Prior knowledge:
The chain is of the alpha/beta class and 373 residues long. The protein has two domains: 7-183 and 355-371, Glycogen Phosphorylase B (Rossmann fold); 199-351, 3-Layer(aba) Sandwich (Rossmann fold). Helices cover 43% and strands 14% of the residues. The chain has 15 helices and twelve strands. The chain has helices spanning 7-16, 29-32, 46-54, 63-79, 96-105, 118-132, 140-152, 161-169, 213-223, 241-246, 263-267, 284-291, 322-334, 336-351, 356-371, and strands spanning 23-25, 42-44, 87-91, 108-112, 155-158, 177-179, 199-204, 228-233, 252-256, 272-275, 296-299, 314-317. Strands 9-8-7-10-11-12 form a six-stranded parallel beta sheet, with helices on both faces. A four-stranded parallel beta sheet has the order 3-4-5-6, sandwiched between helices. A two-stranded parallel sheet has the order 1-2.
Amino acid sequence: MIGRFHAFDLAYQLQKKNFLQKIVTTYPKYYVKKWGICSANIASSPLLELANRVKSKIPFASNQILSLIIKRIHSVKVSKNIKGADILVAWSGSSLEAIVKAKKMGTKVVLERGSTHHSYQMKILQEESLKYDFDFTPDYYIWERDLLEYELADYISIPTNFVKKTFIEYGIPEEKLIVNPYGVNLSSFRNTGKKDDVFRVIFCGQISYQKGVQYLLQAFYELNLEGMELWLVGSVNESFKPILEKFQSRNILLKGVYPQSELYEVYSCGSVFVMPSIQEGLAMVQIQAMACELPLICTTNTGGSDIITEGVEGFVVPIREVEALKSKMLYLFNNQDLAKSMGKAARNRVLKGLTWDDYGCRTIEFYNDILNG
Length: 373
């Protein structure tokens, strides 16, 4: 696969159970080995990773065409590593050629899709672009590849029932869908104790329209409560900068990008984690924040309904509903002892089914079912 996502966590779980034949990645071997994956089990193409990262900076070149070329090259490399495998775990958008070869060889294909059905994703982003007047041009090449991969795959592994709903809406048979929520490393995500009395709202992810940050900013700005801060952690999408300028406030802080190894320190400074996305598969930052004892406020389109019980570990609100976000943030601000107890409940929820070991056990069970017919 191109990029990281949850692939290394999955590969490590497969390796522990002696299921892993090879992980084919664009990341260099030394980096992948940090997840405990044996060097012999890694096929790496670091030049492709470099090309993927700098493609947008190449003058007079189409970013979409370069993306397609990189994905095709990677997919062909994957296809050369299929021999002897019982299952090809293919990554959505970058595996078409490998899937075609696997089907010819009689190898079962499980497609990993971390987001909603591509057509749903394009529809909702198009709606948002019209509402906020930002440029949105779908990559039709990748869109077409995704649809072909959905059709050819024997199974599609997705993280939440919300994602499942979008696939069924666009004609994918329910029996083809495997719902398996992601996990978290509990040794890396823990609460280290809050050191002040500021009620702090944490958001972590790309600061963009897709993540719904425009609604969170408006909600926070309109509440305008003394003693409440909003921390935005992550990179800022260029098209989103006018929104940040519109909602400037001394209590809204841009914290920049943090490495995964330091995120627990950020979460430990918080009082509540808010994920206001308009479309999301299952943002892993939600589970990370819960592991750090933060209650979760999320939208219906984040997959959060699969990982929290309403009013116990957090709240689920409709997308684009500023008043709902205001209501839940204000409620927790006015009931801070309750917010802390909900954070404890969130950590306990993670302990009961949302670790990477839990994810790995479910995955192996699914794969055994596939191989046993």
